[in-house]
DNA sequence: CAAATAGTGTCTATAAGACATTATTGG
DNA sequence: CCAATAATGTCTTATAGACACTATTTG
């Protein structure tokens, strides 16, 4: 009756060279051995309390990432997606700053730009596209993109991240207003970053938003 | 390795007596035989092409509902939710007008108000709450609630549905504007409904939105 | 004709965007 | 002092809400 193959996959996203990248791993087993694919695997019934737990474990073991922003994306199931038979993949997505990934990444993992991705096994292409769409649409209304920034960041840096995700410029004044409205970041006392011009105040995500989102009703639209 | 129990459950929602109701069925098997629970079941690997297909079949066979608005909600998985062991339920939600459900419903099915629901087996309480929250939050931005209206409806009737879902009154002018903006409904030529006062124009969902949503960026907020 | 409900016109309030201005650094 | 960037002030524009008014029915 229950011949369903049940796995957990993770779409690990980060920003690198001003573009969204996904972490892929060379599969060491059939089917599709040797192909780049999403990190994933079977549930360990004795070890994983739930699917988020399994996704965490996979990220830890396969990519060396320990406490990313992690959320369930949805389940991709059906008869056609896996040559072994009817299967269900509980897909998740994770966001981490590039710094974290650079430090932790095992050599087997590759970061690939999400735009123009192709040749993925199973329906991993669809899963990645769904994750990217989800992240983009949530970005408009929430603090989600902040999880792609490092531990400390300036508001202009954060705005750049939002702009990269949404693919269009944001009005600077509106962005400052939005950051105040979401109330998710706090100044790091006496910490500034200077590159060229006036030094920028450094901020960090408030503790209570490290793994939760701050939402707003109002969209952050395009502007100059 | 893969001892995971994989099932599909459906949260079938409708409006009845001005309140959101969920369809529950008395379970005929262990565990929890005799208890009211969400309609659900195992995937039929030979019959169901994917999880939506399985959800459709379950609705058809258990509730006699044939083409509702149906969407995946998410997967509820873990070691603790089912006494038989580690399990994953791919949950879906469906919206139908009350008229459809009244005509189709088998006697084994009961409609229960979603507010104050309790005593459900497994984590079905959580699944229902998640579905209701999802429907409510999507309602603000989309044509979703129209799937709870009958085939033909007046704008004031539709507004009432939105108000019931969101739990607060909506500004009448804003609502008319929003309906125009979403562009998902069309007048039924020369069809009006009269109860008391000026007859109201009847509308229907445009064909292209029968199973898809029309979204807007702007929220529909409370008003008089 | 009064009451009720549908539908619209229009003013006001609010929030977002444009743009200018000030602030503060390095060269 | 100039160029560059951060941060903020403020005017304009767009959109939502309030409210009144017209339209059309029933009793």
Give a short summary of the structure.
2 copies of one chain form a homodimer. The first copy, chain A, is 26% helix and 29% strand. Chain A is of the alpha+beta class and 224 residues long.
How much helicity do the residues of chain A have? 25-40%
Low-confidence stretches of chain A: none
- Indicate the proportion of strand residues of chain A: 25-35%
What does the oligomeric state look like here?
Answer: homodimer
Shape of chain A, please? elongated
| Average of pLDDT of chain A | 94
Largest interface: A-B, 30 and 30 residues
Supply the helix-strand structural class of chain A.
Answer: alpha+beta
Number of helices of chain A: 5
Round the Cα radius of gyration of chain A to an integer and report it.
Answer: 19 Å
> Total strand count of chain A, please?
10
Biggest sheet statistics of chain A: 7 strands, mixed
Span of the ends, CA to CA of chain A: 58 Å
Q: What's the helix-strand series of chain A?
A: EEEEHEEHEHEHHEE
């Amino acid at each position: 009756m229950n011949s369903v193959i049940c796995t957990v996959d993770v779409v690990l996203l980060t920003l690198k060279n001003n573009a969204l990248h996904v972490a892929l791993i060379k599969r060491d087993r059939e089917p599709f051995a040797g192909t780049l694919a999403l990190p994933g695997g079977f549930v360990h019934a004795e070890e994983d309390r739930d699917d988020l737990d399994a996704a965490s474990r996979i990220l830890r073991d396969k990519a060396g990432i320990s406490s990313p922003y992690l959320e369930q994306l949805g389940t991709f199931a059906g008869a056609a997606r896996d040559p072994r038979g009817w299967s269900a993949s509980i897909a998740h997505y994770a966001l981490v700053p590039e710094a974290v990934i650079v430090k932790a990444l095992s050599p087997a993992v590759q970061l690939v730009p999400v735009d123009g991705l192709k040749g993925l096994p199973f329906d991993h292409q669809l899963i990645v596209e769904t994750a990217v769409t989800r992240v983009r649409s949530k970005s408009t209304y929430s603090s989600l993109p902040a999880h792609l920034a490092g531990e400390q960041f300036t508001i202009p840096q954060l705005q750049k991240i939002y702009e990269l995700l949404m693919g269009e410029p944001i009005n600077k004044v509106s962005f400052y207003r939005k950051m105040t409205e979401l109330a998710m970041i706090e100044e790091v006392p006496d910490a500034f970053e200077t590159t060229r011009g006036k030094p920028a105040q450094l901020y960090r995500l408030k503790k209570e938003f490290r793994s939760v989102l701050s939402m707003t009703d109002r969209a952050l639209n395009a502007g100059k």
